[in-house]
Design goal:
The protein is α/β, with parallel strands linked by helices. The protein has helices spanning about 25-35, 50-55, 65-70, 90-95, 115-125, 140-150; strands at about 15-20, 40-45, 80, 100-105, 125-130. It has a domain at about 15-100 and about 110-135: HUPs (Rossmann fold, 3-Layer(aba) Sandwich), CATH 3.40.50.620. It has a five-stranded parallel sheet, with helices on both faces.
Length: about 160
């Protein structure tokens, strides 16, 4: 029997992205996911629960079940997990899933990341990569535009734009 030598086994690299993805999808989310997938072999999404989103923003625009289904249907996403933390972080989720890379979006920097997540990444050997994708849009800005809209909403049948 031949011995296995170092370098004979290729380890699968799991990349994680995280967030509320509410409202989903916007172009910034799609770009972040697409570019994060290129960093490894498998892309997992750690999605905030409705309770986390409500605590952060005061409202949930797209319910968790719908966000989950839309993320699962994205061809670049291998698996979606709901954060198990319950405190707005993904610290326990990182310990559970142990990705090799945590890809933070284009508008994220170390100073805005929870210290517990940074410490957990150090503990489990997960490399944090910031600035994956441009900040092409913002969920908060989309919601502000919706709330600020003062015009009349209407729906016309397709092709009837008179």
């Amino acid at each position: 029997m031949e011995k296995i030598k170092e370098g004979d086994i290729k380890m699968k690299v799991t990349v994680a992205v995280c967030g509320a993805f509410d409202p989903y999808p916007h172009i910034g989310h799609l770009e972040h996911i697409r570019l994060a997938k290129q960093l490894g072999d498998e892309l997992i999404v750690i999605m905030n629960s409705d309770a986390d989103v409500f605590r952060k923003r005061g409202a949930v625009f797209t319910p968790m079940g719908q966000r989950y289904r839309m993320l699962k249907d994205n061809k670049n996403v291998d698996e979606v997990y709901i954060s198990i933390d319950g405190d707005g972080t993904i610290t326990k989720s990182l310990l559970w899933l142990k990705p090799q890379i945590l890809a933070k979006g284009g508008d994220r920097v170390a100073s805005t990341m929870p210290k517990s997540e940074i410490e957990m990444c150090e503990k489990i050997g997960c490399k944090i990569i910031y600035g994956i994708g441009e900040a092409l849009d913002s969920s908060t800005e989309i919601l502000k535009r919706i709330l600020d809209f003062q015009g009349e909403l209407f729906h016309r049948a397709s092709g009837d734009f008179r």
